[in-house]
Amino acid sequence: MPPKGRIEVKEIICKGCGLCVDACPQHVIILAEDRINAKGYHPAELSLDGCTGCGICAIICPEAAITVYRQVAPAKENQ
Ligand code: SF4
Ligand code: SF4
After folding, report:
1. In the chain, what is the greatest distance between 2 CA atoms, to the nearest angstrom?
2. Ligand 1 pocket: which of 9, 20, 48, 51 to mutate (most atoms <8 Å of CB)?
């Protein structure tokens, strides 16, 4: 099973540049065409399941608007 993750975008500082959309290897980020933020940009958002928590989007975002959460497998109990 591939690792699971999710992202949160601080919409207020996203400038809708689309770099994260292009960089995501899973193609799960879109620019929300149905709304604009206070700066007048369509903010990025997670559109589908499939985020692996790889962190590439957060690294590439020039505004540091993305926080990545990666699911960690529970540790196996000692027997
Ligand atoms: S963490 Fe990786 S897989 Fe998830 S949205 Fe960002 S670039 Fe895509
Ligand atoms: S790279 Fe950052 S600023 Fe650009 S669209 Fe994605 S979240 Fe917004």
Report:
1. 56
2. 51
pLDDT at 22 over 60: yes
Return the closest-CA partner of residue 41 out of 64, 62, 11: 11
Checking if the pLDDT of 72 tops 90, the result is no
Q: Closest ligand 1 atom to the C-alpha of 27?
A: 8
61 lines ligand 2 (CB under 6 A): yes
- In short, whether 18's Cβ falls inside 6 Å of ligand 1 is no
51 lines ligand 1 (CB under 6 A): yes
Query: Is the pLDDT at 3 greater than 90, yes or no?
Result: no
Q: Which domains does the chain have, with CATH numbers?
A: 5-70 (3.30.70.20)
Single pTM value for the model: 0.90
Q: Evaluate if residue 78 carries a pLDDT over 80.
A: no
What is the distance between the alpha carbons of residues 4 and 8, in angstroms, rounded to a whole number?
14
